[in-house]
Amino acid sequence: MRITKGKLAVAELAGAALLAWVPMSGASAAPAGATGAVPAAASEAGTLNCSQLESLWEQAGGSPSAAFMAAEVATAESSGRQYATDNDGNGSVDRGYWQINSTNPGSSYDPMTNAKEAVSLSGDGTSWQPWVTFQTGAYAGKC
User: Fold this and answer.
1) pLDDT, tens digit, for every residue of 93-128?
2) What is the pLDDT of residues 82-101, one digit of tens each?
3) What is the separation, in whole angstroms, between the first and last Cα of the chain?
4) What is the CATH number of the domain that holds 64?
5) Residue 32's domain spans which residues?
6) Which residues does 76 contact at the CB level (< 8 Å), separation at least 6?
7) Which of 13, 67, 92, 142 is the least buried, fewest Cβ under 10 Å from its Cβ?
C-alpha cells in the first residue's frame, strides 16, 4: 500500500501485530473503509495470509472449526487483499477479503465488518454457496 499522507501504526495485541491507519496533521483520510485494525501481513499492508485470515474470521465471531475453510474462500476470492474490488455486470460491487457484494449491509473494506458479514452470510461457515469460488471448487487447496 502506498501512503503519501498519514501513516500505518503497528501495535502488538495478544501476540499478533496489528495495522491501523493513523492520519497525520493535515493528512487526507484513509482509503474508504480503512477504519479497522487487521493482523499485519508479511507482505504489503492490507494483504493477509491464510493464518491471518483464519484469525480475522475467529475475531469476527466465526467458528474456529470453520476458520480454515473461511481462509481458503477468502484467499480464492481476493488473494487475501483487503481492498480487492470486483465490479459486477449488474452494477453491484464485491468488496474486501470475502468479496461481500454491495447489496449486503456488510459490504465494506473494513476487515472486521467484511469478516462479520462473511460469518453471517455463510451461517458461521455452514454454507459457502453464496461464493462462486466455493461453487466452482476454486477455493480448494488455497491454504
Assistant:
1) 999 999 999 999 889 999 999 999 999 999 999 999
2) 999 999 999 999 999 999 99
3) 23
4) 1.10.530
5) 7-135
6) 131, 133, 138, 139, 142
7) 13
